[in-house]
Amino acid sequence: MTAVVFCLTIPATIAAGVVFWGHRQFYFIALLIILQTMLPFLLRFERRKPQARELVILAVLVALAVAGRSAFVMLPQFKPVAAIVIIAGVAFGGESGFLVGAVTMFVSNIFFGHGPWTPWQMFAMGMVGLLAGLLFGRSKLTRWRTVLLLCVFGGLATFVIFGGVMDFHTLIMAFPRPTWEAFWAVFGYGVPMNALHAGSTVVFLALLAKPLLGKLERVKTKYGISVASLCSITAP
Q1: Which segments in the chain show pLDDT lower than 50?
Q2: Where do runs of H (alpha helix) occur along 48-92?
């Protein structure tokens, strides 16, 4: 149900901003998206009596993703953000993955610059985390949770989902009346940058997935955090 809410209400919010405000109220749209992503997460937490430790861990993951994006500022599209968001989704589930992705893009844009692209980045990166949680965050899928498969998923999700959403944003922002020629021009121009972004996600997942998920598992055990989807990862 939460996934349906994310997939329907957030695109509707972005579409309303484009139609009624013409990208001018992007701060307000971004705030609405944050509220929409936090509400199901907080309701789920309330039902299972959460511990503050869980929120602290997610805040640390957001801070890590923001710091990673800032550290690689001189290398366009070569960022560890998507990898960390995917790890958050795998470890804590789809809702938390979406929350980490959306909040990371909003907070990091305080340094990189907010604009009409911010809500789109929040939604796109959030969807990457959500899908990671849905595919790899269930205990029944533990045997599929390998570094290799995570790298394959990360590359595809970054290229198709994040790259596709942001290219679509570029299309409707640059062309009031998009044509097929404009469509192929925008999406074709975005292929090299999306491929670089996807490749960097694969690299960072290969380096970070196993040790970071292992540390999250140890934190869970040490502090008694009962998150059903928090898990370790096997070698390829």
Answers
A1: 140, 228-236
A2: 52-71, 81-92
Distances (CA, A) of 83 to 50, 152, 212: 25, 11, 11
3-state SS assignment for residue 22: coil
Measured between alpha carbons, how far is 139 from 229 in angstroms, rounded to an integer? 6
DSSP-derived secondary structure letter, 159? I
Tallying the residues shown for the chain, one arrives at 236
**C-beta neighbour count of 205 within 10 angstroms:** 27
Beta bridge partners of 146: 234
- 67: buried, middle or exposed (CB in 10 Å: 19+, 13-18, 0-12)? middle
Give the global pTM. Answer: 0.80
Residues 69, 21: Cα–Cα separation, whole Å: 29
> Taking the mean position of all CA atoms in its chain, how far away is CA 186?
23
| pLDDT given at position 1 | 56
